[in-house]
Each structure stands twice: as structure tokens, then as C-alpha cells.
Amino acid sequence: xxNIDPDQIKVILATDCGSTTTKAILIQYVDGEYRQTHRxxxxxxxxxPFADVTMGVVNSVTEIAELADRRLVDxxxxxxxxxxxxxxxxxxxxxxxxxxxxxxxVAGVIAEMTAASAKRAALGAGSIxxxxxxxxxxRRPHDQIQRIRDLRPDMxxxxxxxxxxxxxxxxxxxxxxxxxxxxxxxxSDYSMPxxxxxxxxxxxxxxxxxxxxxxxLQIVDNxxxxxxxxxxxxxRDKIHDIFLxxxxxxxxxxxxxxxxxxxxxxxxxxxxxxxxxxxxxLQDINVVGVDIGGATTDVFSVFEKTFNRTVSANLGMxxxxxxxxxxxxxPNVLRWVPFDMNERELRNHVKNKMIRPTTIPQTRExxxxxxxxxxxxxRLAYKQHKEFAxxxxxxxxxxxxxxxxxxxxxxxxxxxxxxxxxxxxxxxxLSHAPRMHQTAMMLIDAFEPEGVTxxxxxxxxxxxxxxxxxxxxPKAAEQVFDRDCLVYLGTSVCAAGQPKAGKxxxxxxxxxxxxxxxxxxxxxxxxLPFEExxxxxxxxxxxxxxxxxxxxxxxxxxxxxxxxxxxxxxxxGRSLTLPEERSSCQATVQGWLDAxxxxxxxxxxVGV
Amino acid sequence: MIRALVLLLVLLGFQPAMSHGExxxxxxxxxxxxxxxxxxxxxQVMVKWSLSPDDRVLKDGSHGVIGYVIYREVLPTAAGxxxxxxxxxxxxxxxxxxxxxxxxxxxxxxSVPYSVNQFLDENVDAGMTYVYAVAASGVGNSFSPLAVxxxxxxxxxxxxxxxxxxxxxxxxxxxxxxxxxxxxxKRGGTIKVRPIxxxxxxxxxxxxxxxxxxxxLFVPGILDINDIQxxxxxxxxxxxxxxxxxxxxxxxxxxxxxxxxxxxRETVEAAYLGEGRPDAYNEDNIYYLTDxxxxxxxxxxGVMVREKPAACFYMGAFYAESLILAETANSIGAIQVAxxxxxxxxxxxxxxxxxxxxGEEFFAASAYLSNDPEQxxxxxxxxxxxxxxxxxxxxGCLLATLATVVPDxxxxxxxxxxxxxxxxxxxxxxxxxLKVAIxxxxxxxxxxxxxxxxxxxxxxxx
Lengths: 608, 462
Prior knowledge:
The complex is a heterodimer. Helix content of chain A is about 35%, strand content about 25%. Chain A is built from 17 helices and 22 strands. In chain A, the strands form four sheets. An eight-stranded mixed beta sheet of chain A has the order 13-12-11-14-15-16-22-19, with helices on both faces. In chain A, strands 3-2-1-4-10 form a five-stranded mixed beta sheet, with helices on both faces. The radius of gyration of chain A is 25 Å and the shape is globular. The relative contact order of chain A is 0.10. Chain B has helices at about 1-20, 90-95, 165-185, 195-210, 230-245, 260-275, 295-305, 320-330, 345-350, 360-370, 375-405, 410-425, 435-460, and strands at about 20-25, 30-35, 45-50, 65-75, 110-115, 120, 130-140, 140-145, 145-150, 155, 215-220, 250-255, 285-290, 310-315, 335-340, 355-360. In chain B, strands 1, 4, 5, 7, 8, 9 and 10 form a seven-stranded mixed beta sheet that branches. In chain B, strands 13-12-11-14-15-16 form a six-stranded parallel beta sheet, sandwiched between helices. The interface of A and B includes residues 110, 135, 166, 168 and 224 of A.
């Protein structure tokens, strides 16, 4: 690792070692600002026969070097650093999700309290949580032990009890883990890392339980010192440390790679979370990010400065596509398709996609069907995210007599679509959709943003690189994020409430680089041209019962910016409901697709 | 007041003398009619008559008649009289009410003061036939001749109180709705019960106790087990105990009644057994403190301050101790969940506790927690009943208001009268003819007044 003055950093090289591809980008200081200038890609070489991740890194960096006409790799195959005018980079950084990323098991006393906090810490650090063990998870101790024995996590995080709280229950959890003797995923010669982040009074007793060997116990501050507050930082940092020291050290070539990097290698999802948090903090906005992959869908959110991440392990567009169809049900998927489709053929299509994950749609119908599946996958993943991103449970409430009829339990979701400012999409089906309009429509249909929300996509999946960069040079990370990482699709203005079909939903007046005014009816969606460089102010006058951000029926004024799609005015209401009757549903969806020119370039007649 | 005194005199002072009295020149009442009271079990007969002409204030300020005395004869069915059949001429007199009726030998069934022209005989047997006679009594132990009812009366029992037919219809409707929803729920239909925060918070509160290594305190109110609120509290206790058994949290239940303690012990033991944790059940944690209200309060406070429970439940009937307990637990940082149907204590609980079950919510807890189709169906059916009651209430208020504002509108007055007297009253399905006639009279009078007033206004205008 190197300590470099951020002001001296002018050339940044970043890689993301994914399971299949290693993606490299070059960021340079051009005309007083940081810009992403070149990118390269090469197959990841962590698996045999190469078994050295640095080979893929060097290959991808070499591609950039050729494109940028700048020598980045020396004759020994090492990345050149520091930079001169013609060669090398000032800092090299990397993330990794190769080999399945970071996989953890977490445990706590109560599933909704300390165990939930432990899960949040693990997910926030970028790991996949394989299982959550808790005293109230409904399983008998022998089942829990068997489960722990069957899993092969990279590390285990144990929490439980407030400081000064229960000791016995925490020791009981430790006594489940110790006899199970779980084996680490990589390397049979090293001890299973255990992070203990529970009641400080139980540290000694927990240490005694793990004394017998085979474990590397690391103790950090309690992640729930009192039930009213979470302290996830120390546990997350320790997870990163162990990820580097133990997990990465065991993966082929990572020891060499770590010696090249100027900042610790981060798990890819953790880095994505970091850049979103950085952007939310610097711009003081609420952000939701989604990365839909073949097997899993990651959802990140920052609301009121609170970061949450969820991994929906069974929602994806290739390996998990069958599960999406099963979970969402086929009628729910098909409601987004504006023509009749043979369900048997569709099922065959789904299974084909599952066993041949790299295939892409060859016809417009196949594309529309795949995007319908994506809508449902995103909707379900976001629903899971909302259920997880909640206020803390077990917290004492302060009431007044005014609360008599409005008492709510703690643990309510903090995800509020009305206060959402920026929705960022990434992942093949979103990033590589033939038309940006399709990405925008999928986002709006699945996430149902309310009020005024900016839509964007990370077309080349640059967020992981910028996440690591944000820990070294936040300013550079933000500039590149804003200018090069995100492709702004446009601004969506969505009415919350249930407008009556055909009746006025809201009136709008756009001023600034472009002027326009008009009225949106209930059930209608409209697209206004509003180019990427254009900005303006929109004044919205909602009808009675319709909320656009200031309360039902109240006038709203917001700054808006354009995008590749434009300004989307959505009067369909929230929550979004489609007609039950099939032909009526098809007509409605077709109307929406036409209004946004979603499949404009396709001129083939509709039919299967 | 004077009437009451006079009646008292009649009953106490004059009655013995009456038996020795003699018939003087008082005019008797007339048109005596005895009628079976409808819609009863056959235990009442209403006797009505026209007042005696002497029932007036004399020049010296005294009353000519000081009361009416009612006599009754049982008519043997062997006499061949059917219920309601007209008495053969003279037959009644032969059965006892003869011209030489001996007031001394016959005990009256009752008496009323002057100016009263009816008497309700509540001491009759169903199925028996009676003949009634009324005599006016005057000063000096004097009596008028007996006025005998033209017809005998049979006290009949009715199996249905037709006067409350609407009540029956509504009850039947609610019962059908309840039965429908019970079967609907049993068939797997979804009955949505809105989330009750106080009950949802049980797991949260017990979880907090577990994490903090502190006990859970459950206070089942200060009344005995015969109080419905205590019973509802015990239902919630069962759920709390199940959660405590799952989470392996310590549950403490101090009681103010010995029977409540016994019930609570059995409930908690069953809950622990049901969760497969009989080993975790500790009988000593459910104990009796005292019947004394504030002695009990002080005892519970002591437990709070010493053991600092992380969760406190107050489920049952509470009085002045509610705020004392809630504030004490608040000061030790416990999550508090209260449930009571005592309106005066609810504001205290709402202000001091984290969650409060209010009245109906408290009683619905059993169905909510058990998710049992029969209970859920019953709950839903009762809700429909409440909706019907609320609709009637609103409709009645509106009609009553409109009928007052527009007094000459016959439809409005009729609707108002129908709701008041038929649906809510005892007039049955069909409007009472007499009341309708009275209403018609009132309306005619109003119209006449309007017509009288109209020319005067017109004349003024011209």
C-alpha cells in the first residue's frame, strides 16, 4: 500500500476482477477534472489452468495501454507506478468478486435485532450471507450445528447482547459454532476466522469457547452496544481486513495483486456500496442502486445517510431466471408483455436461458419477454430490500396522547420512494438494453419511484472501481461518477396516489433550457424531449389526492435535468396496478410502451 | 308529590278502613277495559277506564275522588268462557262482582291515585281468565259502585316479542354474517385483521429482554378472574409466555388476586409446554402479592426498580396505579405494552407506554394472536354488526335533525318515527296506527297554522 497525496494523483488505474471478466479503466486528470478516458477487458484468470489473477489484470491493462498509447505494464509484467508524462499510473486500485466473492455466515441472539445488525454489517462489507443463526430462528440446536458444519464460509461474524446484556445466550451461540468446526472455503491449512462483535462482558467466555483451536477469533466493538444504536463500522473494517489477510491470500495470484495496489482490495459489492454512499453524502441525496446479474440481484440504498445492501440470491436473469418466474408467477411476468405468448414455449425459453446463460434475445418478442422477467426480478428484489432496510427493532418509543390511533411498530422500512433522488441501474439486462428507453421503463415499472427522480445507468459497470477510488480520492471518484460513470436517462415525474383514469392527474410547466406545459391524465404516461445537457425547473400542480412530493394536492417545484431518454411524466399512480383482464392489460401496456417509444426501432410485426 | 302522598294514604291509611267502608254516592268510573299486555310471557294485564265524573277538585280544594281501587275475579275455564269471548250478560256479576259486593271481604289487586285511568296488573298467571272491576274511592272510606269490564281477559304468553322484531332481524343478520365468515375462514378464505401494533410488538419487547439479559414483567391488572379484562389479559399472557419460551427469556407475573395467579400459572405452564420448553417454566416467577391496590402497586414498582425488566406488559383492568406503574417502567427504560378497556386510564397508558391496546383491540387479541378461523370469523361478523349499528346511528341522527328542521315533512317525520319507535323501539314492523294518527294530527295543525299565517304576511306585503 502507498500513501500518496490525493492532489498529486493524476493518473488512476482501476480493475475489477469479476468471476468471468476483469475490467480495467483508466482515469486521468484532464482540463482541471478527473475523467475516465479508456477501458479494457480480459478474461479473469483465477481458475486453472492459469491460476493467477494478475494475468487477467495485466491483459486488461495492456488493452488500455494500447488504446491510450501509454505504457502501463513493465517488461516484468508489473504495473508501472508512479506515473510520468508517458507511462505508468499514480495509483492502482482493484476490487474482486472472483471465486464467488466473500461468503459469510452470521449469528446473533435475536434474529430481528443483533443477528439483523450482523447481517447488515456483513452485507454492507460486500459479502454474501450464507445463513443467519439466531436463538429464535426456529431450529433446534442440533440442526443449527449441522447447518454450520455444512456451510463453508470464508468467515463467521458472531454478535449478540447489548453491552452489559445477556452473556449466556451469546456463549450458547459460540457453543453452537465451536463444536460444528466449520471449514473455510479456501485453504485447509488456516484457521476459520471468527469475528466476535457482541456483548463486551461475554468476550472472555466466548474466547474460552474458541480456545480449543481451529479458529482465529478476532474481537471488535459490539455492533449493537445498546439496542437504540448500531455500530457497524468496526465489524465491517474487520471483515475487510480478514478478506484481505485470509480470503484473498488464499486465492491464486492475489498476494501478488495486493502488493501492486495502492489501496486495499475490496469485495466488488462493498465498493459499489461505498461509491453510492460517497455520492449520497457529497450531494446530500437519497440513492438507490441495483445490479442485476445472472444469478443474484444486489440492491443498494442510502436513505437519510443510512446505507443498506441486500443480495437477492435467487433473483437473476440467467441461472436464476426459473426462480424469478416461479416466485413472481408467469401471469405476473406476462402482464408486462403486450401480446399473447405461448406459455409452453416461454417455459422452454426460460429453461434454455438457465442452462445457456450467455445467450441473448434474438427477436423482439424474446427481448420483451426478457425485459418483463427483469421487471419482476427487480420488483421482487426491491421488495426484499424494503423489508430488510428498516429502522432498528427493540427500541423504546416515545409517545404522546396524539399517537393514540397512529401507533406503529419499530422496524418500519426506511426506503421511501418519494424522497428518492437518484436511481442507478447496472447489470446486463439494464445496461445493455438496445434502447435507453427500455432501461428507463423497466426501472420505473419495477421500482415505482414517486415524485421527481433522476434515472441513470452504469453502462460499463464502473461503480466498483470508483468505490475503491472513493476511499483514496473521494473528489476524483465523485467527478468520474457524475461525468463518465453514469449515463443519465432522464428525470421521472411520477404521481403517487390513485388518479382516476382519464381525469386530470397533474399539470406541469417546464422552464429553463426548454419550455413546455400541459396536463397528464390518470393512467397516462408521457415523454417530453429533454436532452442530456439541458436543465430546467418544473412546476407541478397535482390534482386532489395526488402527491408529487409536498403532500397530496400541493404544488411542487423542482430542478430537473435531461437525459438520453428525456423527461418522463407518469400519471399511472402508485402502487402501479394493471388491468386483470388480459386483452385490456395488453392494450394498456402497449399504450405505455408507445408513449415512451420503448420499442420504436423495431418495425417487425408483432407475433410469436 | 301530593299524588304520591295521597296514594300512600290510600294504601296504608285508608285500605283497612276501606274493607269496612260503605258505598256512598260517588259516581263510579266507566268503560272498563282489560287487555292482555302483548309481547310478554303472560304475566301482565292492562286495565283502563274512564275517570269518574267526581274525579275533580272541589271548591274547598279537596278531591272528590282520592283514588281508584281495582278488583279482579278469576273466571274458571269450566264456565266455558273462551279467551276474549264476551261475558254473557250478567254472568260476571254472578261470579262475584254482584251489586252487594263486599269491599271488606275482597282484597283489591291494586289501587291508583286520582286522575289515573289505568293500572298494570303484573301479578297474573298465564293462561288464566280474569274479570276486572274498578271502583272510585272517596273521602270517608266511601266507594263508588263497581264498574265491571265488559269482557274477561286471558293473560296470554307470546313466544315472540313482535314489538322487537327489528331487534330480532338485526340479530339474525349479524348471526348469519358471523356464521358466514366463520365458514368462509374455515374454507381457507382470507380474513384480514389490521395490524395491531401492540400485539406485533410482543416479540420485539421479549426480544429486547433477551438481548439485554433482563426479565419480562407481565401485570394482569388488579381485578379478579371474573372480570372480562383479566380474562383478555390472560389470553395475551399466553402469547407472551410462548414468545418468552421460544426466546428463553425470564417471565415474571406478580398478581393481585390468588385466582389470577393460579390461572396465570396454568396458562404459562401450558405455553412453555407447547413450545417444548417445560424445563424453562418456573412456577415461582408467577406469584401473588396482595389484594390491596396500592400495596400491589408498590410491590410491582419494587420489582421494576430492583430487577429492571426490559419489557413490561400491563394487560387487564387498571385504576389509579396505571400511571404509577407506567412511569416507573419508563424511567428504567423498558419497552411497555399496555392493554385495557378502562377509558379513564387509556390516556395515561398511551402517553407513558410504547404501545397500547385500546378497548376493542384488547378483546380482539385472542382472535388476532391465535389466527383461529372461528375467532377471526366471529370478529369479522361483529365488525359488520358494528357497521350496521353505526349506519343506523348516523341515519337516525340525520333524520332526527332533518325532521326537526323541516317539521311539516311527512316522509321525514314518518321515517324518524319509524326508526325511533319501530327499529329502536318496541312497535314492531308496522307503524303504530295511533302514533301515525297523532302525527297526522300534528301535521294538519301545522298546515293550518301556516295557512293562517300566510294571508297576514301577504296582507302586510300589500
